[in-house]
């Protein structure tokens, strides 16, 4: 079947928005996922893997249970309703691995990709038109879903060619959270104390490694983990100066523990990498006045963070975890290139 091509697509993908009119694809309620035709400034992708964002996958498991068929059905339902994998509760998406199936005529000059190239998207699935033919497998331990599907990327969408020096599912896992270590590199300065919450998770480990590099020997990186297993595996990597077990939803315990560890000084930078709700105040209370709290977690509530900080009279800068930071893909991939221990751990988990 030949592919129909339409002219004059919007660079940000606004031409795919069905409702409400006038918004861009990410906040849209529904996008057009008819991929039998593409606009001349789109890339058509044959998709093999989705990496569902951790907050979204955790929410779906909580809603429908851990049964594979129920998870598949919920994913299909969301994509059916919205034309994209845009979790209506968390608002988040994830990313995909696929093969370039067509390059729109208008993109051919400026886009280095050609048909057959393997890529990973670096824009969220929450804005990417997606049409799933079949879900072949749900990998519950890694939030990855093997699919037979098609998607399109827009003229301004970010992507990376899959690196040749690591397995694809490892690259997908690392690139899913690549904004976090790159932001950590920017925020943590030599000699500072940095707390990473959820430091044993996928983004947390990358952040902890990067934070230690930046804080140096005079600085201190404190990793917070929730489970005994998480504490043990994070400790085994030796990338944090301290690893402590805390429930980040218990704000007072978080405050007391970090206060005790730092002789009441608290931390300069807090990096929140959890996948659950209600950790805003715990994060804020661990931070010293004029410090920085970086919320990478998609389960963060702006309202809870803003009003929570006000409620306890805390003067901290709070940063929303932008998924994009210049050079983010390379920073994250370099962590697994440079740390053999992290690479081994990630290969066990994600390959
Ligand atoms: P992950 O691998 O699932 O890690 C989550 C971590 O949070 C785990 O170490 C987990 O510990 C810990 N945790 C869970 N409950 C906790 C609690 N009550 N107290 C302390 N720690 C707790 O997740 P990820 O893939 O790194 O993603 C982290 C967050 O980033 C998610 O919210 C995800 O949606 C978000 N994200 C944001 C962007 C962005 O652009 N801003 C992009 C991608 C992902 P246990 O394993 O011990 O339970």
Task: Walk me through what this model shows.
The chain is of the alpha/beta class. It has two domains: 4-162, no CATH class; 179-350, NAD(P)-binding Rossmann-like Domain (Rossmann fold), CATH 3.40.50.720. It has helices at 54-64, 68-82, 168-176, 179-187, 202-215, 228-237, 251-261, 280-285, 302-311, 328-338, 340-350, and strands at residues 4-6, 17-19, 30-31, 37-39, 43-52, 94-103, 118-121, 130-139, 144-153, 159-161, 193-197, 220-225, 242-245, 267-272, 287-295, 317-320. It has a six-stranded antiparallel beta sheet, with helices on both faces. Strand 12 (220-225), helix 6 (228-237) and strand 13 (242-245) form a beta-alpha-beta unit. NADP nicotinamide-adenine-dinucleotide phosphate binds next to helix 1, helix 5 and strand 12.
C-alpha geometry: globular
CATH topology of the largest domain: Rossmann fold
CATH architecture of the largest domain: 3-Layer(aba) Sandwich
Q: Round the Cα radius of gyration to an integer and report it.
A: 21 Å
Give the CATH superfamily of the largest domain: NAD(P)-binding Rossmann-like Domain
* Class by alpha and beta content: alpha/beta
Our count of helices gives 11
Task: Extract low-pLDDT stretches.
Answer: none
Tally of DSSP β-strands: 16
Q: Could you name the CATH class of the largest domain?
A: Alpha Beta
Oligomer: single chain
Distance between the termini: 35 Å
Q: Strand arrangement, largest sheet?
A: 8-9-5-6-7-10
Can you give keywords for this protein?
single chain; about 350 residues; alpha/beta; Rossmann fold; 6-stranded antiparallel beta sheet; 6-stranded parallel beta sheet; globular; binds NADP nicotinamide-adenine-dinucleotide phosphate
């Amino acid at each position: 079947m030949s592919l129909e091509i339409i002219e004059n697509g919007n660079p940000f993908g606004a031409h795919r928005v069905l409702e409400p009119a006038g918004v861009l694809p990410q906040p849209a309620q529904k996008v057009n996922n008819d991929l039998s035709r593409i606009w001349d400034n789109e890339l058509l992708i044959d998709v093999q893997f989705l990496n569902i964002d951790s907050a979204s996958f955790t929410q779906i498991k909580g809603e429908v249970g851990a049964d594979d068929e129920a998870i598949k059905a919920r994913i299909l339902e969301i994509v059916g309703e919205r034309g994209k994998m845009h979790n209506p509760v968390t608002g988040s998406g994830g990313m995909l691995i696929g093969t370039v199936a067509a390059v729109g005529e208008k993109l051919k000059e400026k886009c280095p990709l050609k048909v057959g190239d393997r890529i990973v998207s670096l824009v969220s699935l929450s804005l990417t038109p997606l049409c799933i033919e079949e879900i072949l497998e749900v990998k519950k331990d890694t939030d990855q879903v093997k699919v037979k599907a098609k998607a399109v990327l827009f003229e301004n969408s970010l992507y990376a060619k899959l690196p040749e020096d690591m397995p694809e599912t490892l690259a997908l896992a690392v690139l899913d959270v690549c904004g976090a270590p790159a932001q950590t590199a920017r925020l943590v300065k030599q000699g500072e104390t940095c707390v990473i919450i959820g430091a044993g998770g996928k983004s947390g480990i990358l952040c902890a490694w990067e934070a230690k590099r930046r804080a140096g020997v005079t600085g201190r990186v404190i990793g917070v983990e929730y489970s005994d297993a998480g504490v043990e595996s994070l400790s085994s990597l030796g990338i944090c100066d301290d690893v402590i077990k805390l429930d980040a939803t218990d704000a007072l315990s978080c405050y007391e523990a970090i206060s005790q560890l730092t002789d009441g000084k608290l931390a300069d930078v807090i990096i929140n990498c959890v996948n659950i709700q209600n950790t805003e105040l715990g994060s804020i209370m661990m931070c010293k006045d004029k410090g920085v709290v970086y919320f990478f977690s998609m389960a963060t509530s702006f309202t809870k963070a803003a009003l929570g900080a006000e409620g306890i009279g805390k003067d901290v800068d709070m940063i929303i975890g932008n998924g994009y930071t210049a050079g983010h893909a390379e920073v994250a991939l370099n962590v697994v290139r440079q740390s053999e221990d992290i690479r081994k751990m990630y290969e066990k988990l994600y390959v």
